[in-house]
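Problem: given the chain below (274 residues), write out its structure.
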Amino acid sequence: MPELPEVETVRRTLEKLVVGKRIARVSVHLPRIVREPADSAQFALMLQDETIRAVRRRGKFLQFYFDNYVLVSHLRMEGRYSVAPAEEEMEKHTHVVFHFNDGEELRYRDVRQFGTMQLVRQDEIETKTSIGKLGPEPLTDDFHPDWLTTELGRRKSRLKPLLLNQEFIAGLGNIYVDEALFTARLHPERRADSLTKAEAERLYEAINKVIARGIAAGGASVRSYVNGEGEMGMFQLQIQVYGKKEEPCPACGEPIVRTVVAGRGTHLCEQCQK
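Solution.
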């Protein structure tokens, strides 16, 4: 699933490609992708003649701001946006097409069909979508070491599932949680309230570091991820533990271990992350 760096990279590429374009019509080929409104025909009608004014992001959600509405889109496992000329052949598994009045199209393709779209009024985004439930994001003013230290001290949860909880911290997923915990030298099954202040601050720095590196590298293309221009990310070349079962730890040389924590495949060095 694309995480904060991947979705931010998609946002940045789409911002260059679609802001200022006006929608002539919308084609919905798989209605269940559209969750709000329930009627996909109404969804298409609401967007007719609307102009994309901004492309923003919150956590793992893309937000397309129009004149009167905002489209909140979650890519889930393999959702992908691309811009193409109308005459270009449509790829298989293209489920929603936004036809612009200049002859180009914004196409949403999703092999796994898990992605979602919600079209709401701009004043409804906090109440009608999951945006209002999201926790603070790395690299923002709301996410700071004192906040993290205090919140960890209130939680009995293990670190890995807590960091994956979008209502705790928005934007982290399996890749960046494993990388942050390794960077902070913390075991994914440590109880959150067992961390010292120094360990909590180390985790804060690690989270910001791996997210910043992920964004700078254009995200991680470990499976099917590409940005809005069809380009791969390069963060997979910097990954230290995720997906590296039995490879030597870059810090101590011991084999990386793969285990399961809270139902998620988890990679760590048992020597460095005791």
